[in-house]
Amino acid sequence: MPALVLLGAQWGDEGKGKATDLLGGSVDYVVRYQGGNNAGHTVVVGDQKYALHLLPSGILSPGCTPVIGNGVVVDPSVLLSELSGLNERGVDTSKLLISGNAHVITPYNVTVDKVTERFLGKRKIGTTGRGIGPTYADKINRVGIRVQDLYDESILTQKVEAALDVKNQMLTKLYNRRAIAVEQVVEELLGYAGKLRPYVADTVLVLNQALEDDKVVLFEGGQGTLLDIDHGTYPFVTSSNPTAGGACTGAGVGPTKISRVIGILKAYTTRVGAGPFPTELFDADGEALRRIGGERGVTTGRDRRCGWFDAVIARYATRVNGLTDFFLTKLDVLTGWEQIPVCVAYEIDGRRVEELPYSQTDFHHAKPVYENLPGWSEDITGAKSFSDLPKNARNYVKALEEMSGAPISAIGVGPGRDETIEINSFL
Ligand code: GDP
Ligand code: IMO
Ligand code: MG
């Protein structure tokens, strides 16, 4: 059985956690392939709500093996506290596997993230402050610390020394901060080594063997397509590749193994942090979407910026990810609007543009061209099949599907596992 990728089609927080959890019961492995604890994935099981940051959402399905791939950046203290939090709630986490090649978010990476943002002032990215960007920067600069380094004190010390060499100059001379002591960092990191040991594995081998044995592997993206370092709204992006190709490099599985790429798509749009957002609303509608949709960040508690659905972005996500399907989420949140505007194109300096402009300047000038679709007032949270939806809700879904370039195979009508309408099976 081939592999599936599930990823965010917008700016994150589309409902990836719920979608992954839903499939978790039917797959053998759920793999995070990029990002770190900048992610906040909410999963609601019965009356229990879980907020996962680093752990794959498959951790809540007993038959499933959760895997943290080599492309992820791991903050050991966050990982251990997330594990113990779940254990206290009776969740068995013993099957977790962590790649020895995953990079470690060190305390100095978190410090650098925070001071850099402060230094940028008005030009800041609005990062989650979790050390994500600086850890990936160290990886690319070849001064990163990997999980396997925690098991060789001498190598670890040399690597921390190399990493801190330049950073301490920067912290003391440029940012007016105190230098960070190598020994203190090494001691802290070594303190995690024993606790992480049982989980560390050659995950590339495990996953490829699993695929050869016909097991089902689901790759769960963090963030979203427009936050991708290559394909997103750079520089207002995260520092990894949430797009489909990231699953291959971030887990060591070849593209020939992936047969399905599911884009999680919110029925409207949200964004956290700075950066362009053509359909953003600053009025009562935006406020209502935030309130009804509960649009507050799971990781940083920041209010999410809210706006209408943007079909230009959805089409772009279909293209750069090779999406085979969409999972449309939060349709229930739109209940009650008489008319629902949907952005079908942009107007840029007097021109109508159908596709996402590659130029940052153009995108900053993009004004949404709206088409109004008729709304519905009936409660749809109990809908179990597509035909249970009111006519206007069905038409809204069909219109989005047509504009977005891939079939909508499932619809979320509430946060719970069972509040989902399945149209085509994903497995
Ligand atoms: P993720 O980061 O993509 O996993 O998404 P988040 O968990 O950050 O945000 C999505 C929020 O929407 C969570 O609070 C989910 O419980 C909730 N959610 C997911 N799907 C639906 C849905 O179909 N309807 C409603 N009302 N809430 C949903
Ligand atoms: P999930 O997985 C929404 C945003 C931050 C900031 C930018 C860079 O829950 O969808 P970073 O700390 O990654 O360097 O911040 O990316 N961001 C997210 N926005 N959902 C997320 O994750 C995000 N992870 C990062 O707000 O704008
Ligand atoms: Mg989230």
From TrEMBL:
<keyword id="KW-0342">GTP-binding</keyword>
<dbReference type="InterPro" id="IPR042110">
    <property type="entry name" value="Adenylosuccinate_synth_dom2"/>
</dbReference>
<feature type="binding site" description="in other chain">
    <location>
        <position position="223"/>
    </location>
    <ligand>
        <name>IMP</name>
    </ligand>
</feature>
<keyword id="KW-0436">Ligase</keyword>
<dbReference type="InterPro" id="IPR027417">
    <property type="entry name" value="P-loop_NTPase"/>
</dbReference>
<keyword id="KW-0963">Cytoplasm</keyword>
<feature type="active site" description="Proton donor">
    <location>
        <position position="41"/>
    </location>
</feature>
<feature type="active site">
    <location>
        <position position="139"/>
    </location>
</feature>
<dbReference type="InterPro" id="IPR042109">
    <property type="entry name" value="Adenylosuccinate_synth_dom1"/>
</dbReference>
<dbReference type="GO" id="GO:0005737">
    <property type="term" value="C:cytoplasm"/>
</dbReference>
<feature type="binding site">
    <location>
        <position position="304"/>
    </location>
    <ligand>
        <name>GTP</name>
    </ligand>
</feature>
<feature type="binding site" description="in other chain">
    <location>
        <position position="302"/>
    </location>
    <ligand>
        <name>IMP</name>
    </ligand>
</feature>
<dbReference type="InterPro" id="IPR001114">
    <property type="entry name" value="Adenylosuccinate_synthetase"/>
</dbReference>
<feature type="binding site">
    <location>
        <begin position="412"/>
        <end position="414"/>
    </location>
    <ligand>
        <name>GTP</name>
    </ligand>
</feature>
<feature type="binding site">
    <location>
        <position position="13"/>
    </location>
    <ligand>
        <name>Mg(2+)</name>
    </ligand>
</feature>
<dbReference type="InterPro" id="IPR018220">
    <property type="entry name" value="Adenylosuccin_syn_GTP-bd"/>
</dbReference>
<feature type="binding site">
    <location>
        <begin position="298"/>
        <end position="304"/>
    </location>
    <ligand>
        <name>substrate</name>
    </ligand>
</feature>
<comment type="subunit">
    <text>Homodimer.</text>
</comment>
<dbReference type="InterPro" id="IPR042111">
    <property type="entry name" value="Adenylosuccinate_synth_dom3"/>
</dbReference>
<comment type="pathway">
    <text>Purine metabolism; AMP biosynthesis via de novo pathway; AMP from IMP: step 1/2.</text>
</comment>
<feature type="binding site" description="in other chain">
    <location>
        <position position="238"/>
    </location>
    <ligand>
        <name>IMP</name>
    </ligand>
</feature>
<dbReference type="Pfam" id="PF00709">
    <property type="entry name" value="Adenylsucc_synt"/>
</dbReference>
<feature type="binding site" description="in other chain">
    <location>
        <begin position="13"/>
        <end position="16"/>
    </location>
    <ligand>
        <name>IMP</name>
    </ligand>
</feature>
<feature type="binding site">
    <location>
        <position position="142"/>
    </location>
    <ligand>
        <name>IMP</name>
    </ligand>
</feature>
<comment type="similarity">
    <text>Belongs to the adenylosuccinate synthetase family.</text>
</comment>
<keyword id="KW-0479">Metal-binding</keyword>
<keyword id="KW-0658">Purine biosynthesis</keyword>
<feature type="binding site" description="in other chain">
    <location>
        <position position="128"/>
    </location>
    <ligand>
        <name>IMP</name>
    </ligand>
</feature>
<feature type="binding site" description="in other chain">
    <location>
        <begin position="38"/>
        <end position="41"/>
    </location>
    <ligand>
        <name>IMP</name>
    </ligand>
</feature>
<dbReference type="GO" id="GO:0000287">
    <property type="term" value="F:magnesium ion binding"/>
</dbReference>
<protein>
    <recommendedName>
        <fullName>Adenylosuccinate synthetase</fullName>
        <ecNumber>6.3.4.4</ecNumber>
    </recommendedName>
</protein>
<keyword id="KW-0460">Magnesium</keyword>
<dbReference type="GO" id="GO:0046040">
    <property type="term" value="P:IMP metabolic process"/>
</dbReference>
<feature type="binding site">
    <location>
        <begin position="40"/>
        <end position="42"/>
    </location>
    <ligand>
        <name>GTP</name>
    </ligand>
</feature>
<feature type="binding site">
    <location>
        <begin position="12"/>
        <end position="18"/>
    </location>
    <ligand>
        <name>GTP</name>
    </ligand>
</feature>
<feature type="binding site">
    <location>
        <begin position="330"/>
        <end position="332"/>
    </location>
    <ligand>
        <name>GTP</name>
    </ligand>
</feature>
<feature type="active site" description="Proton acceptor">
    <location>
        <position position="13"/>
    </location>
</feature>
<dbReference type="GO" id="GO:0004019">
    <property type="term" value="F:adenylosuccinate synthase activity"/>
</dbReference>
<feature type="binding site">
    <location>
        <position position="40"/>
    </location>
    <ligand>
        <name>Mg(2+)</name>
    </ligand>
</feature>
<keyword id="KW-0547">Nucleotide-binding</keyword>
<dbReference type="InterPro" id="IPR033128">
    <property type="entry name" value="Adenylosuccin_syn_Lys_AS"/>
</dbReference>
<comment type="function">
    <text>Plays an important role in the de novo pathway of purine nucleotide biosynthesis. Catalyzes the first committed step in the biosynthesis of AMP from IMP.</text>
</comment>
